[in-house]
Structure formats: C-alpha cells, structure tokens
Amino acid sequence: MVEAVAFGKLILFGEHAVVHGQPALAVPLKALQATVTAEPAPSGSGLQILLPDVATPLRLETHDALSVTAQMVLNHLGVPEPDMVLRLTSTIPLQSGFGSGAAVSTALARALSLALGHRISREDLNAWVYEVEKIHHGTPSGIDNTVIVYERPVFFIRNQTLESFDIAKPFELLVARLGYATPTHITVGDVRTLYEHDPAAIQPIFDQIGIISRQARQAIESGDLTPLGHLMNENHALLRKLTVSDNTLDRLCQVALDAGAEGAKLSGGGRGGNLIVLANKNRAAVQEALLQAGAVEVIHTWVDES
Ligand code: MEV
Question: Which domain holds residue 126?
Fold first, then answer.
C-alpha cells in the first residue's frame, strides 16, 4: 500500500487582490491534511476513488475534480487505467478557505503516481492542480495550489516566478472557523464585477492591499513582527470594501480585538470561511471569546519554515 499526504493552506495577506495582479502571502497549514492511500484491486476492476462517507466510488468517467486529476496523471505517465483503489481521508474542512480542493487533488496525484512507480515533479503537479482548481473556482490566481504543492511559505504574484519568503521568527496564529462558507468563485466573481463597474475606485484598494502584503513580508522576514497586527486589521478593512467580509466575520474580528488580540482578518475567499487572529499576549482569552461568540472551532497554529 502507498500513502501520500497534502497539507491545507492559510492565506496571511492579499487574498482577492492577488487575482488582480497584487502580491499575497500564504503558508502551509500543517495542522490539517488530506491523505490518499493506493491499494491494488482485482484485475478488471479499474480505478476506484473512495471518498469518506460516500458509498459509491468515483470512476474516471465521473468527470469530477478528483477523476480529472487522476486522468491527468495517467495521461502524463502514458499508462492505461490501473486496477486500483484510491481511498481519501481528510481533516481539512470543505469550503473553509483552507484549500481543501487543492489538497485532496495533490494528495491523490501523489498517491497514484507513487503507486505506479513514478515521482512527479512539483512543476507538473502544480500545473495539473491549477487546472483542477479552475473547475472549482473559475478564475483562481493559483496561490492555493502553489502553496499546497510546494509546501513552503509563498510570496505569490500571478504569472510570475515562484518566490518563497523567510520566517525569521516563528509566530503563532489562531484560526477561527465559522462553520459556513461562500464558494470562492462567487466572491471572486463579485469582486471582478465591482472592479469592472468602477475600476477607478477599486484599483486603489487592490494597490493598497499589495502594499500591505509587501510590508507584511518585510516584517516577517526581518523578525520584527510589531506591525503585523495593524497590517492584518488594515487588510481586513480593505476586504470589507471589496464586499467579501460579512457581519459575522466583522463581529468576530472585533470580538478578538476586544479580548486583546493585536490583529484579525478574514482569510481566503471570505463571506464565511475563517478568520486569522494574531494574539501573542491574551491567546487563551481571545480563543475563549471567539468560541463564545460563535466560532465553531479555533485552531492554534505556528507559522514557521518547517
Ligand atoms: C482563495 O483561497 C484566495 C482568493 O484570492 C482566490 C484566488 O486567489 O484564487 C480569494
């Protein structure tokens, strides 16, 4: 039996503006992972993809995101459909802004190619998972697949060479899950419409988010994390202007700040999903306040290089 994993991701700064050419920062979220095991199956049974809690296996002809991923791997390797069972398990909640779709595709492609005796390059894998992301998200920037495939912090600018960044001093974040979400292609589409209706008003918001991402990178690389909380709050305010926050996200950000957090912002597509909180001093109180205020889960994570 072969097993492969892929981690979730967390966007620290720059979501949405990244679709429009601005830089964004994202890191792997190693607390959450998708796992795919591959086992040989009886001759003639073909490829079956078993999902948690779903009785009927997916097949290549199903044409959903995972079958498409498997087909891409087989085409690339130039091999016929194998007799194999791929079994998916995942601790990454669906549609929560943690890159679940990209992570399950990545784990599946890794397991399938390993089981067939091949190692695929990260470049190829990244290109395939990006194609699959388009099925979920319409016009993704590519940041989710990139951070998940490369498993490194990324300073991401669309259509540019991949850049990682150093984390001089590891820091801790709280990630509060709201328990509901809006599909990313909807929020990305709404931001695009907003921009098309009034580019003169919206472009400066994208530009300002880009400046924040660059300043955040500088802070993280220098190890002077003092500006980070303020930058998160500013980034959240700009995301509100782009209409991708909602009352719950705004309320929970405020709850975190009132309980002593240094910064809070939505992370990912917005209108639900999750928010990230920097709370160096009052972490336990902030965590408790977020849960009291309705977060369904508050995950504690380190942002570091490992
Ligand atoms: C989604 O995780 C991040 C967005 O910026 C969309 C994208 O970059 O494709 C909202």
Answer: 2-156
